[in-house]
């Protein structure tokens, strides 16, 4: 009694054999993957090619084999190199210079009893600096990279010179200016 009205499924619809699905079919039903049924494109055929410009195909007209021969004509997408956190970037105006210019004005110290909120505000300022300097790093990666770059000799000497300048009354926001010497009388002795 067949009430379904159709044959039972056989398995593979490509070859019709049971025991496997079409995605796992071991036989290739089309041994010639070329969509052009004419094996000799230069021979004359029973049909004529259309002459309308709407039907013209670039290349030789048979699947665009000229494109395969000249891949250099395609404009390659130039990948933009992401800037890495280097000592030059850390010591630039967007690096430490940003911290020295913006943090003193933006951070409001509230004092005793407000340490948690003060720390949160300070971390928020560092997160803002992170998104301004290198936004594609996570904040944890950014902190780790700043710690790594901060141990280099160039950064240490620049920060040491900055500390001396501030201790002598210099302006900390002028990161790249040479320190002004106040002891002119010692040079003549």
Automatic annotation (TrEMBL):
Main location group: nucleus
Keyword Metal-binding: yes
InterPro entries according to UniProt: Csm3, TIPIN/Csm3/Swi3, Znf_CCHC, Znf_CCHC_sf
GO biological process, one term: DNA replication checkpoint signaling
Subcellular compartments: Nucleus
GO MF: DNA binding; zinc ion binding
Signal peptide interval: none
Compositional bias ranges of the Low complexity kind: 41-53
Annotated GO CC locations: replication fork protection complex
UniProt-annotated stretches for the region Disordered: 19-84, 166-189
Protein keywords: Cell cycle, DNA damage, Metal-binding, Nucleus, Zinc, Zinc-finger
Superkingdom: Eukaryota
Family classification: Belongs to the CSM3 family.
Role according to the record: Plays an important role in the control of DNA replication and the maintenance of replication fork stability.
Name of the molecule in the record: TIMELESS-interacting protein
Organism annotation: Actinidia chinensis var. chinensis
């Amino acid at each position: 009694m067949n009430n379904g009205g159709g044959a039972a499924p056989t398995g593979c619809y490509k070859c019709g054999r049971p025991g496997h699905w079409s995605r796992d079919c071991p036989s290739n039903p089309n041994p010639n993957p070329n969509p052009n049924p004419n094996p000799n494109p230069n021979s004359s055929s029973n049909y004529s090619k259309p002459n309308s410009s709407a039907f013209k195909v670039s290349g030789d007209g048979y699947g665009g084999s000229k494109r395969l021969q000249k891949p250099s004509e395609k404009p390659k997408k130039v990948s933009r190199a992401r800037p890495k956190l280097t000592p030059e970037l850390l010591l630039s105006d967007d690096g430490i210079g940003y911290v020295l210019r913006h943090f003193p004005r933006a951070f409001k110290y509230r004092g005793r009893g407000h340490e948690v909120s003060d720390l949160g505000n300070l971390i928020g300022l560092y997160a803002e600096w992170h998104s301004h300097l290198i936004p594609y790093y996570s904040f944890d990666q950014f902190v780790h990279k700043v710690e790594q770059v901060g141990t280099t000799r160039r950064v240490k000497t620049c920060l040491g010179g900055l500390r001396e300048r501030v201790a002598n009354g210099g302006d900390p926001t002028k990161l790249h200016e040479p320190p002004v010497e106040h002891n002119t009388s010692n040079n003549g002795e």
